[in-house]
Please model this.
Amino acid sequence: MENELNDATKKEERTISVTISSASSILPIMISRFNQTSPDTHFAVQQQPASANYSDFSTDFNFFSTTTPIHNDHTVTLLKEDLLLAIPHNYPQASQGSIRLSDFENYGFISLQAGKDLRTIADYYCSEAGFVPSIFLESDSPFTIREFIKAGLGVAFVPEITWCQVREKGIKLMPIRSPKCVRYIHLSWQADGYLPKKAQRFRDFLINHFEEFAIQNAEQFKEQYYESKR
Model:
């Protein structure tokens, strides 16, 4: 019995718990890189409910995003990235170098569910442009959103780095010149809770390498995309 309790305690110390509401597509890469130096680490990952506040989590860490940077004693900004507007390649605006968001006021938007970080950010920038977006379709999958854009059914906000997999033939990713649309991805941990040494190491790893690895991944995907078009 004592040995079983000791084993359970050791496993708990090796387990890092994560709540995620942003950057879900890039987290597996980060975990894989971290496990190269710490192979005995276990992870428990859960999605943040759409209705939850980003400060409301019980895990070691929470990934979330906002329109502004955050730095305090229990939160750090890991990445700043532009938001692009993904449109079907045959839209007339696809030949432009950049677009104004207000030009798409009367278009249908394909978006994440209400309450999700990116949806909240997208709604904010549409409001800044002077309109409320008409949501044609809601999905929790970047891949589903990609397929609906390819089918010509609407437009969507796409984070330039962490949603690099949306880049595909039939879709044009347009820089938005007005308003300037960006999001910041943050890592937060419990302000008044105990953080195991493994979790501390993972936090330091993310602070030091998250931006680097995210950009590398996006560049590799972009190279593969253009190589496939040749």
Remarks:
- The chain has two domains: 2-78+183-228, 81-182.
